[in-house]
Write the structure tokens for this entry.
Amino acid sequence: MMDETSAWDAVLERDARRDGQFVYAVATTGVYCRPSCPSRRPRRANVRFFALPEDAERAGFRACRRCRPQEKAAPDAHLVERACAYLDAHLDEAVTLEALGAAIGVSPWHLQRTFKRVTGVSPKEMLRARRMERLKDRLQQGDDVAAATYEAGFGSGSRVYERSDARLGMTPATYRRGGAGMRIRFATTECPLGRLLVAVTDRGVCAVTLGDSDEGLVAGLAREYPRAALEPAEAGAADLSSRIEAVLGYLEGTSPHLALPLDVQATAFQERVWKALQEIPSGTTRTYGEVAAALGQPQAARAVAGACAANPVALVIPCHRVVRGDGDSGGYRWGTERKSRLLAGERARRSGTA
């Protein structure tokens, strides 16, 4: 049975590695596509998944003329597949762009440009991601951290720990236990936008959420980290109090910047989007399309919106600064009214009228 959550993630990220494994069809257009299709991403509610192109056609859908999903492989997707296969076979080596291009018979410039357009990441970033995937597989199979680290192609334990925050959201040892035993302390308080929850691990802030009630915020944290030990922080806990004060200071306009150490999980694409969001100046906005274009993927506006919706740390990663192309503020995980108030407050502070 197809894992539709995984399939939808592949569609959002235009993952060429999933081409040939399934196709997706869009009810509103009557068209079916391969996961890497460069066309605009549809709404999830309008999407159906099929294991084979023939299944989609029997259901009344026609093949996309851009990605030609009924054909064995699109040329660019095939190039990326070959590059990924080479990377998988050489995870324990320092693969250069020149060596990879020579191995599959294209210039380094063409490889870099095509690879990033199709997958959204560079070959170097993909190599790191594949190593982390192998690391997770080895840990899940029961390898100890040292063995898994070297089997995954990392030259030293320090290198994998450098990358683990971005790829795992926790250390390899914690991941090996499936996240169980992860200790998260949290506190809630009143703020100008309702109720605020801030949660931390020993490594950084893992959640900043806004809502109408403490019960709802805590329930949301439990859904986000179902196997972690959630503990209400003791009153006056210094580290958590300082994080809350920083967030409140930002909301109240007494602190112009909000930079906190984070411990969050992200895909390679989400990581790139969130980094781009943190570069948007306070008091200004970008459209989803502008963020996608800045990442070198002008057709990935919907995928950018998906990454914004997955952001677990409100304000620290300022997804509220991304709006729709028609000028509408667009959706917001913590409510459109809060988004509008945040943007109005930042504009006022930027103009000096606050």
